[in-house]
Design goal:
468 residues; alpha+beta; Beta-Lactamase; Helix Hairpins; 3 domains; five-stranded mixed sheet
C-alpha cells in the first residue's frame, strides 16, 4: 500500500510538473517567435513598400537576420521567396496559410521528419504579400525528454522508497503481533510455559503483553487443575475397583451355583466392570501425559518386526475378529525406528480395537515410506484400514478428542468404546514425535495413518516437554 501510494503520488506530481513546465516553455517559445516574426514582418513591409525605395523580395528575405534553426518565407503575387531550412509554399501548413491569406495573423506548431516547428504567419496587405517565419523546436523537445526521464526516474525511486518505508513500518508495527502469533502457536502445541517478553518502553504493547500472559497463566492453571483432578479421581477409583474386581472374581468362580438370571447379571456386571477398569486406566495415562510426568523409553527397532509384533499383540484381545493382512514395503522392512515400543503397541492395539468397535474389524495394516517431515527427516507411515462405513470428513479432526465418539457411535459396531482410545493414540504418537490422522480407505472404510520420523525423537525429555 505504501508502494502503491508512492507510485500514485509520483504519477500525479510528475504529470503536473511535466505538463505545467511543457506548457510554460512552449508558451514562452511561441511568444518569442511571434515577437520576432512581427519585427521581421515590419522590416519586410518596409523593404517591399513601393512608396519608397522598393527592393526585390529575394533581397529583402536575404536581409532578414534569422536565428539558428529558423527560416523565413515571403509569398508575393503567388511567388515564394524562401530563406533557410529549405522552405517553400508546400512547407507551410495549409490551414495556417488560409488564415494568413484571409488577412489574419496565425501561429501553428507542426512536425516535419520527426522535428517539431513553430510557424508564424503575418499578412502584409499593403504589398500584397504574406510573411512566414519558422522556428526549430528540437532543442525544446530534447529538454522536455530529459525532464520526462528525470521525473520517471524520480517516480521509480519514490515508489521503491515508499515500498521500503512501508515494509519497514509495517514490520515494526506488526512485530508484536508476530510474537503473539508464535507464542499462541507454541501454546496450542502444548508448550504452556510460553510467555511474551515484557515491553515497558511501549505502553500499548505492554498492556497487550500483560493481558496475554495473564490469559496463558489462567489457561495453564486450569489445564493443570483439570489434569490433577483427573489423576486424583482415577487414583481414588482404583481402590474400590480393585475390591470390586476381587469380589467379581469370587462370584465368577462360583457362578455355577447361581440361578440363570443371576449368572446373566454377573456376566453383564463383569463386562461393565472391565470396561470401567479400562476407562480408569486410560484416564490415568492421559493425566500423566497432561501433567508432563509421562515416561518415554526409546529403543531402536526394525520397522517390519515392530509392526508385525504390535499387530499380533493387538489382535490377541480380539478373538472374534480375523487378524488383518499386514503389508510392509520392502524398503521399510529393515529400516530402523527409534520409538517407545510399549506406546507403539498401545497405539496399534487401540486402532485395531477402534476398527473392531466401529468398522467390523481391521482388514489391512500397511507400512510404507512417508514424505520428509518439517525438519527434513525421513518418515514411515503405518496405516490401519477397516471395512466399515468410514469416518465422515466433518468428524476426522474430532475423533481424537477425549470422549468423542461421533454421530456414528449409535449405529456402528458394538458401541463398547469409551471415547478415549483415539485420544490416547494421539498422545502416544505425539510423545514419539509423530502425527496421526484419519482419512478414507480405497474402496470405502476408515484409514488411520500414523507417521513417525525414522530415528525417532532426540530424547525422552523432548517428548515430555511438549506437555510441560
Amino acid at each position: 500500500m505504501f508502494g502503491l501510494g508512492a507510485l500514485l503520488l509520483s504519477l500525479i506530481m510528475g504529470g503536473l510538473s511535466y505538463f505545467t513546465t511543457r506548457h510554460f516553455l512552449v508558451a514562452e517559445r511561441v511568444s518569442a517567435a511571434v515577437t520576432k516574426t512581427l519585427s521581421d514582418a515590419g522590416a519586410v513591409q518596409t523593404g517591399l513598400n513601393p512608396g519608397g525605395l522598393a527592393q526585390k523580395p529575394s533581397d529583402v528575405i536575404d536581409g532578414i537576420d534569422l536565428a539558428q534553426g529558423s527560416g523565413a518565407l515571403i509569398i508575393q503575387n503567388g511567388q515564394d521567396y524562401p530563406s533557410g531550412l529549405g522552405l517553400g509554399v508546400g512547407t507551410v501548413p495549409g490551414e495556417l496559410r488560409s488564415l494568413v491569406v484571409s488577412g489574419n495573423p496565425a501561429t501553428q506548431i507542426f512536425g516535419r521528419d520527426g522535428t517539431p516547428y513553430i510557424t508564424v504567419g503575418i499578412p502584409i496587405p499593403s504589398v500584397h504579400a504574406q510573411y512566414y517565419e519558422i522556428f526549430d523546436l528540437s532543442d525544446l523537445q530534447h529538454t522536455l525528454r530529459v525532464l520526462l526521464l528525470a521525473l520517471a526516474g524520480a517516480g521509480v525511486l519514490t515508489t521503491l522508497l515508499g515500498a521500503a518505508v512501508g515494509r519497514s513500518a509495517s514490520s515494526r508495527s506488526l512485530r508484536p503481533l508476530t510474537g503473539v502469533s508464535r507464542a499462541a502457536t507454541a501454546i496450542a502445541g502444548g508448550k504452556l510455559d510460553t510467555r511474551l517478553p515484557a515491553a515497558p518502553s511501549d505502553p500499548d504493547l505492554a498492556g497487550l503483553t500483560s493481558s496475554f500472559n495473564m490469559m496463558v497463566d489462567q489457561l495453564e492453571e486450569r489445564i493443570q487443575r483439570e489434569a490433577r483432578f483427573n489423576s486424583d479421581v482415577s487414583h481414588e477409583l482404583r481402590s474400590p475397583l480393585t475390591t470390586l474386581s476381587a469380589t467379581l472374581a469370587v462370584l465368577e468362580a462360583h457362578q455355577e451355583e447361581l440361578a440363570p438370571r443371576a449368572r446373566q447379571a454377573l456376566v453383564l456386571l463383569g463386562d461393565d466392570l472391565r470396561r470401567f477398569q479400562r476407562m480408569v486406566a486410560d484416564l490415568l495415562e492421559i493425566s500423566r501425559s497432561g501433567t508432563g510426568s509421562a515416561e518415554v523409553v526409546l529403543e531402536e527397532v526394525a520397522v517390519g518386526e515392530l509392526v508385525r509384533r504390535a499387530v499380533a499383540a493387538g489382535t490377541r484381545s480380539l478373538p472374534r475378529f480375523e487378524p488383518p493382512r499386514v503389508e510392509v514395503d520392502p524398503g521399510m522392512e529393515s529400516a530402523h525406528l527409534r520409538v517407545d515400543k510399549r506406546r507403539f503397541e498401545r497405539v496399534m492395539a487401540n486402532l485395531l480395537e477402534n476398527a473392531a468397535f466401529y468398522g467390523s474389524g481391521a482388514t489391512r495394516v500397511t507400512t510404507e515410506p512417508g514424505p520428509l517431515d518439517s525438519e527434513g527427516r525421513e518418515t514411515v507411515r503405518v496405516a490401519v484400514e477397516d471395512g466399515g462405513p468410514g469416518v465422515p470428513e466433518t468428524e476426522r479432526s474430532k475423533v481424537f478428542d477425549r470422549f468423542y465418539r461421533g454421530q456414528a457411535s449409535g449405529r456402528r459396531g458394538t458401541g463398547t468404546g469409551t471415547g478415549l482410545g483415539l485420544s490416547l493414540v494421539a498422545e502416544h504418537v505425539r510423545l514419539n514425535g509423530g502425527t496421526v490422522w484419519a482419512e478414507s480407505a480405497q474402496g470405502g472404510g476408515a484409514r488411520f495413518v500414523v507417521q513417525l520420523p525414522l530415528g525417532g525423537t532426540e530424547s525422552s525429555r523432548d517428548g515430555q516437554e511438549d506437555f510441560a
